[in-house]
Amino acid sequence: MDALLEVSGLSLSFGGLKVLNGLDLAVGKGAIASLIGPNGAGKTSVFNCLTGFYRPSSGSIRLAGQRINGLAPHRITRLGMARTFQNLRLFRELSAIENVMAGRHCRTRAGALDAILETPRHRREERAIRAQAERWLAFVGIPEVSEQMAGTLPYGHQRRVEWARALATEPSLLLLDEPGAGLNSAEKAELVGLVRRVRDELDVSVLLIEHDMGLVMQVSEHITVLDYGRKIAEGDAAAVQSDPRVIEAYLGREEDAL
Amino acid sequence: MSEAAVRLGRPGWSIRRALGVVVLLAALAAVPGFANNYYLEVLSEAWFYVLLCLGLNIVVGFAGLLDLGYAAFFAVGAYTAGIVTLRLGLSFWLSLPISVVAASIAGVIIGGPTLRLRSDYLAIVTLGFGEMVRISVRNLAVTGGASGLVGIERPTLFGYHLDSIGAYYYVFLLLAVLGVVASHRLENSRIGRAWKYVRSDEDAARAMGINHAMVKLAAYILGAIFAAIGGCFYAAKMTAISPETFTFNQSLLILLGVVLGGRGKIPGVILGALVIVIFPELFRDVGSMRMLVFAISLLLIMLFRPAGIWPEKWR
Questions:
Q1: What is the pLDDT of residue B314?
Q2: How far apart are CA B98 and CA B91, in angstroms?
Q3: Which of A119, A214, B80, B173 has CA atoms 20 to 30 A from the CA of B133?
Q4: Chain B: nearest CA to A146, how far in angstroms?
Q5: Model confidence, pTM
């Protein structure tokens, strides 16, 4: 497996609290991988380290062979990693299309002077930004909401806007933090389809955190199980489901009979 | 909304609206033909404050940052014009590019250390910066100390000497119009959207690949340039400048115009600027109580229109 993301020995502490403890994680090129674990296992902290929001205390993170730990979030996004947030983080008072246009920022160049003088370059770029944003809204299946204020959209649509915004940055790896949270079962089924389309049509690898085990088992080809900041198991769905350490982490240890 | 308008990223810009703007500008340009000097003086000041408020609106409205020391940038422009013409003996027109550079440096000086700060801390630092600039110009020899700079020469444009109130009416009207155009174009650009993203959710903006530090710095610098260019022409109009023009009250008045009108909304900010200049004049008949009446009307506006008279739709 050709690794796109390679994490080794990742540790993160807040004061005396060890949130992550020597975590190794790899996502192959073109893979759909999941990171699971009980509440508080450190899943979102992993994402925050990967995307540069937290600075790990040790370990290394490589994206396509390039070391990215220590870089600022915006530079990591430019290098090809995009994310969605566990609790929606849309620009609520802006329209859906303006939200998606945010993703184009790091792939475009026009500055303040271009804007004030309305140079041809600026006009061309603005047209391209808008056209691409519309294309991404269409890709996630909601082209009709483009002019509506993001905060007023139904929850499922807001999730899709967040996807479109992340995809607009042209990532090679997409991180999805609990993409199924708050969705009904029909929407979850659509989500599975969308994850597969992202990988198959766009050639974007996906790493997701998810609580819905049905969803995880259905969509992911490789699963890493995290507990207390350590990796306790990994493999495909069948291997992980039958692993006694995973069962123990989720359900607790079976006490010996007296 | 027409398709062409959407493509240009200019919502609602139609032929009818363009025609309205032309008629309005023609009417404003005709004012010196019949108005007396008092009206011209008040209106020139109003256009000048429109420019200042639009500049501060970039920082406060678009980028959602606070700046309680904005008068410092206005001072940078005015003193640049004074020093360039009086001390260096150069043409007034050279003071424009020089003041743009000076304002950019001042913008970086205030913007740099404040990038990590939010709300109340930002307020304290910007307030301190404003006072530092005022106290510096009050104590430096090159800026003429407490008495300031006197006898700044009025500029000549294409052989026409700008030495009447009518001329400055047009100068400040033109600056205000340019300020509106520049603000409008910035608002609907890549950088203008970046300001709104950072204002709305800084972390989400960073995750989208936006360098929030550069975006905020750009807001401070552009806002500073608006004030500095205005300051140059202010010096030329007054021919004398002193530190007492650039007090905290001045910064507060400009901020008042922005907040009162509706931060982030260009027509609202224009309206706010007009209110802060014209209201006190309207109440002249009230005599010594006029500032009290002004204050009460401001309180009433803020009570009933907390987001400003003409706010951005989301606030």
A1: 52
A2: 11
A3: B173
A4: 11
A5: 0.91
Contact B239, B154 (CB under 8 A): yes
DSSP A207: E
The single-letter DSSP state of residue A94 is: S
Residues of chain A with Cβ-Cβ distance to B265 below 8 Å are: none
Angle at A98 between CA A93 and CA A101, to 5 degrees: 145
- Angstrom distance (rounded) from CA A75 to CA A62: 14
CA dist B300 and B309 (Å) reads 11
Under DSSP, the state recorded for A71 is S
- Please answer whether residues B141 and B79 qualify as being in contact, where contact means their C-beta atoms are separated by less than 8 angstroms: no
B37-73 confidence digits (pLDDT tens): 899 999 999 999 999 999 999 999 999 998 899 999 9
CB-CB: which of A72, A94, A147 is closest to B200? A94
DSSP code, position A223: E
Stretch A136-145: mean pLDDT: 96
| DSSP letter assigned to residue B59 | I
Amino acid code (one letter) for A162: E
The residue among A48, A85, A89 with the most chain B CBs within 10 A of its CB, best to mutate, is: A89
What residues does A231 pair with on adjacent strands?
A226
Segment B234-241 mean pLDDT: 92
Closest CA to A80 of A173, A208, A203, A166: A173
- The span from the CA of B222 to the CA of B107, in Å, is 8
Angle between the N-to-C axes of helices B266-282 and B248-261, in degrees from 0 to 180, rounded to the nearest 10: 120
ipTM of this complex prediction, to 2 decimal places:
0.93
**Using CA atoms, how far apart are residues A21 and A12, in angstroms rounded to an integer?**
7
